[in-house]
Specification:
It is an enzyme of class 1 (oxidoreductase). Helix content is 24%, strand content 27%. By secondary structure, it is an alpha+beta fold.
């Protein structure tokens, strides 16, 4: 039996600490209890929303419908050979703790993704990435419930349609609930040090644990702990522009930070764009919402303001970037609330 709670506060369940009330709330710990929750929502004609670790969420103040907290856990070794292992991980497992367990077990590849907040289920939805690595490089398959066809589906890597901070699951907001992923991890460690802040490390001597610790150190210097200062990590996607647009920007801003994105395109550092527009460390005088003093890409919400307040600052930033560079910034977090018709999967 599932235990549905009425008028449940979600403020402690989103890392921006936004005040939010779910009219109906339930935590599920298995695929069976998930199906029970979906059936209950059908009976009452409640809209359905799925919440994981809350690290990539913009929660509305009142959420009509049923919010399902995905707490499906479990880690299982499915296959093991001389070169790699296949590991299945429940969507409700903590991502960073999963990375650390894999390192201890000698299952390698995820080190650069250390300390990314949220749950395992969010990883394929967002195609999380950091320091030159994306999770799609290691996903063998994703298990999800199809809320349209009412069947369980297993997606191989190609079927997930991964892209930069994007996937089939993210684009199909009203359809899939991820319950588990399968990771293909190497048994031999190969340090990936192409990212600028890692290039000083020695690839022939560094261990997986040392690399993970260095990643954590770097992240902690740039990203505030949500427990101390409410935030959702990197808030904006790094925009990708054509080469002609890039060269136009370089003429005006010679120090612009950019990376090759393939197909004659450049990926621009959104944090640099915001900082160069004069908004690093900006705080709204009324709401107190603003950008972090150390990293302009991070929005902070020290006074625990609502979605309206946060989005007002988002629009200030987006307008400044558009006026300065001719670029429309996209946000990474997803809105949890009644802007969609059915399921809205978030981190």
């Amino acid at each position: 039996m599932i235990d549905v709670v009425e008028n449940h506060s979600l403020q402690s369940l989103n890392t921006l600490a936004m005040p939010s009330i779910a009219r109906h709330f339930v935590a599920v710990h298995s695929e069976i209890s998930l199906l029970e929750a979906i059936h209950l929502a059908d009976q009452h004609q409640w809209r359905l929303y799925v919440l994981g670790g809350g690290s990539n969420v913009l929660a509305q103040e009142i959420i009509e419908g049923l919010v399902i907290k995905n707490e499906i856990q479990g880690i299982q070794l499915l296959s093991d050979n001389d070169d790699y292992v296949i590991v299945e991980v429940g969507a409700g497992e903590n991502w960073h703790e999963t990375v650390q367990l894999c390192i201890r077990q000698g299952w390698y590849g995820l080190e650069n993704l250390s300390l990314i907040p949220g749950t395992v289920g969010a990883a394929p939805i967002q195609n999380i990435g950091a320091y030159g690595v994306e999770v799609r490089e290691f996903i063998e398959s994703v298990r999800a419930y199809d809320c349209v066809d009412r069947v369980w589906r297993d997606f191989n890597n190609k079927a997930c349609e991964f892209d930069y901070r994007d996937s089939l699951f993210k684009r199909s907001k009203n359809r899939f609930i991820v319950t588990a992923i399968r990771l293909r991890l190497n048994k031999t460690f190969h340090a990936k040090l192409s990212y600028g802040a890692l290039q000083h490390l020695e690839p022939s001597t560094i261990t997986a644990q040392q690399l993970s610790e260095e990643i954590c150190r770097i992240r902690l210097t740039k990203l505030p702990d949500p427990k101390d200062l409410p935030n959702a990590g990197s808030f904006f996607k790094n925009p990708v522009v054509t080469m002609s647009h890039y060269h136009e920007l370089v003429r005006k801003y010679p120090n612009i930070v950019a990376f090759d994105a393939g197909d004659q395109r450049k990926k621009l550092a959104a944090g640099w764009l915001i900082e160069n527009a004069g908004l690093k460390g900006y705080r709204d005088p009324v709401w107190g919402v603003g950008t972090h003093v150390e990293q302009a890409l991070v929005l902070v919400n020290p006074q625990c303001r609502s979605l309206v307040a946060v989005m007002s600052i988002v629009e200030i930033i987006r307008q400044a970037v558009k006026e300065n560079y001719g670029i429309e910034l996209e946000i990474e977090p997803q809105i949890l609330g009644d802007q969609v018709k059915s399921v809205y999967s978030v981190a």
